[in-house]
Structure prediction request, 614 residues.
Amino acid sequence: MLAIQTRGLAKTYPGRPPVVALRPLDLQVEPGELFGLLGPNGAGKTTLVKLLLGIVHPSEGTATLFGTSIRQPEARRTVGFLPENHRFPGYLTARQTLSLFARMAGHDDSRTDRLLDRVRLADAADRKVKTFSKGMMQRLGIAQALMSDPRLVFLDEPTDGVDPVGRREIRDLLLELAAEGVTLFLNSHLLSEIERVCTRVAILKEGELVRDGTVASLTETGRAWRLRSTPIAAPVADALGATLLPAPGGPTGDLAGYTLHADDRRALNDALDHLRTHGVEVESVEPLRQSLEDLFVEVVSAPGASSD
Amino acid sequence: MLGVFLLTLRELRAKWIVVGLFVVATLIWATMALALQLDVVDGSLAGARLFGQEAEMGPPPEDAEQAPARDDALADSTAAAQAGGEEPGFPFGASLLESVVFGAQAFVAGAAYWVGILLALFATGGLIASLQTRGEIDLLLSKPLSRSAILGGRLAGVAAATLALVTYLIGAVWLVMSLKSGLWNPRFLLAIPVIWSMFLVLYGVVTLVSVWTGSSALSLMVVLALLFASLVLAIPELETQIAAGWRPLVVGLRHALPRFPSVGVQLVPQLATGEPVGALGAFASSLGIGGGLYALAFWRFSRRDF
Prediction:
């Protein structure tokens, strides 16, 4: 059973003129997947999350969470959510906050202490929330999202306002959750965070899904490889059936780095055979990837794009 | 729903204005307890002073066996006076003591109605709008709760807190006055559900406007405007004083708006003084309008995007 499935899910906000926030979207997220949602401001990311959580009503289409329609409150029984800019009542302590939200989720508060410990708030358990820093509030928000022992967690900018150490702790926590089989739906502007945590990424642009795939497949440039080998003499390189360019940085020790462009895998292997025939020793060959940030800029700057 | 209910109670407790209302209620009944001085002679009530003013007593019962319940005696004497066409000597009862005690109770009930309801509206008016604040409503809606349970939990919290407040004030005043005077008028306690219900009717306006616009300030302004309009509409001569073309509008508005003044001027004092109860139609129509306001508010809340 899919963790998330949408069929033609769309949202248009009424007004003059109406605002198309999300165009008909078909999306499937498998249980245990670490799914990252990217897109520029106004792309429809938050609208999609709100639609899936019943905060916003769809204009058309359907969606399910673990097979239950999002129109039913029961669909959110095993779902956790950390909204962006969440507000907890300042007059409550951290412990009272978790206890109340656990009750609202239909659970007892037996996990409170364990979760406070897990997000490093055990020492502040009985402090009023209004005295918390932004980072502490964010960690409390994550603990709140985990109170219902969820199978699916939506996180909207989970590391927003958190210092680098705290950011790493949150990242480690998310990876722990992933190891426990929890499905993560991460919405973040920090592309490096998404790149480090998520296994699959979708990019929304103007309410439309323009890229969807694994991080590895999306960042692969295709037809280019990074080659580390013993230095290649110019005549040998010139005789290659592929383009060979020195990689930035120059040689290290007895090895040098190159970028090898070949039309396909066969051309790549022919080139490697040619190099070995001429006494070149190959240390490693790996597909050349662009960073997620490069991909993101490329996609959102392009006039149009299609889903992979 | 219980979680939202408890959250609302905690929020109300955190708002000092609600605590302040309980303090004011305490001051009222404590003042009455201290101000009403009773003179007891041989186990019978022989005289009373309220704020130092002497109150004349009716003839004391000759013996304990002949002493009927005070409220029965009051009802009998009032009925007898009315049947005989006699003008009662005191505005609120057959004796000065009854008049003073029942008058004081009517004053407290009236104050709770006219001033207390307004204060309670100001104290709780922001709760529906704050429920819909971005970051807070997202958290609530992401829980496995229906929207009606969320709004219902919030309203139940407000209703419980205000019921406790009205019960505390009216109940304490009734107990103090009854214990001190020996005049037990349990009908006065019926002012509790009347005052509370009329508060809820007006809170229906706050709820509807807040759900529609998200603005607590606007919701309170609308309530005040509605109260002003209902006061104007309650003027008996209004229909004869305006142009004939406007009369259908006045009649229509009288039926469309809660009849807050009629209930406050007639029903609440009647309950306090033991007089025959009127204005039940105004009360019932106000309740009906309140029900309609809540139905609209729940409908709107269930369809809103946040």
In short: Chain A has a mean pLDDT of 89.
